[in-house]
Amino acid sequence: MSHAASARSHPFHIIDPSPWPVLGSLGVLVMAWGGVDYMHGETPFILLCGLGLVLLTMVLWWRDVIRESRIDRAHTPPVVTGLQMGMALFIGSEVMFFVAFFWAYFHNALHFSPVIGGVWPPAGIETAHAFGLPLANTLILVTSGLTLMWGKGGIALRQRWRLVAGLAASIALGLVFLGFQAWEYGLLTYSFREGIFPSTFYMATGFHGFHVFIGVCMLSVMLVRALLGHFDGPKHLGFQFAEWYWHFVDVVWIFLFVFLYWWVGL
C-alpha cells in the first residue's frame, strides 16, 4: 500500500517498498531456465514453476496498483502521465524483441548461404500454407481487436453489458487463436532444432503466442474489474493499457503472417 494522500504535499506517488519487481524477475529467470531445459528434452516442471511465479506476481502487482488508484486515490494527473509513458516504453521494448527476431530472419532470408542449399526457406523445409490456419488466426486476432474497440464504447456510453461482452468476446477469440496456433505446431513437419528457418519461425511465433497469453490474462483482469463496476466512473487507465497491449499483439501478428507465412510461400 502507499502513503496516504493527505500526507503528500505534491502530486506524485511515492511507492512503498514492494517485493513484486524482484519476484517477477526471479520468475522470468526460472521460466527461461526451464524453457532451455525443456528444449533439451527435460520435463516442463521448472518452466511451469517459473510461469506460475510470473502469473502470481502479475496478479498481486495489479492488485496493488488497483488499490493505489481506487482506495489511496494516488493516480493524480502527473502520475497517470507517468504511467502512460511507462507503458508506452514497455511496449516499445517489446517491439525491439521482435525487431531482433525479424532481423535474424531477414538476414538469412536475403543472404542465401550454401549451408542451407542457397534457397530460402532452406531445402527440405515444407512451410505452412498461409491461407489455411494462419489466415484463420489472422482474422480471429483482428476480429478480437474490433470486439475490444466495440466493448470500449460501453465505457463512454455507460453500458456495462457492452464492455463485458466486448471483453469476453476478445478473450474467447484470443484463446481460440492460441488453440489454433498449437494445432498448427502439431501439423508442422519440422522442429526448432532443424535449422535457422525453424528456429527463427518458432521463436518469433512462439514469443508472440506468449504475448497473446499475457494479453488474455490482462483482458481477463479487466473483465473481472468491469463486472465489479470499476469502469463505471471516469477512470479506466487499466483498460487503456490492456487495449494498447492487445492492439500491439495484433499488429505484430500481421507482420508475422505477411513475412513468415505468405511471403516465404511465394
Brief descriptors of the model:
266 residues, 71% helix, disordered N terminus, 0% strand, single chain, globular, mainly alpha
Characterise the protein shown here.
This protein has 266 residues and is mostly helical. The protein folds into 2 domains: 18-74, Orthogonal Bundle (Helix Hairpins), CATH 1.10.287; 76-265, Cytochrome c oxidase, subunit III, four-helix bundle (Four Helix Bundle (Hemerythrin (Met), subunit A)), CATH 1.20.120. 71% of the residues lie in helices and 0% in strands. It has helices at residues 20-39, 45-70, 77-110, 133-156, 160-187, 196-227, 237-262. Helix 1 (20-39) runs antiparallel to helix 2 (45-70). Its main location: membrane. Residues 8-265 form the Heme-copper oxidase subunit III family profile domain. It is found in: Cell membrane; Membrane. It is a multi-pass membrane protein.
Describe the protein's topology.
Layout lengths: L19 H20 L5 H26 L6 H34 L22 H24 L3 H28 L8 H32 L9 H26 L4
Helix pairs in contact: 1-2, 3-6, 3-7, 4-5, 4-7, 5-6, 6-7
Keywords: Membrane, Translocase, Transmembrane, Transmembrane helix
InterPro entries: Cyt_c/ubiquinol_Oxase_su3 (IPR024791), Cyt_c_oxase_su3_dom (IPR033945), Cyt_c_oxidase-like_su3 (IPR000298), Cyt_c_oxidase_su3-like_sf (IPR035973), Cyt_c_oxidase_su3_a-hlx (IPR013833)
Membrane topology: Multi-pass membrane protein
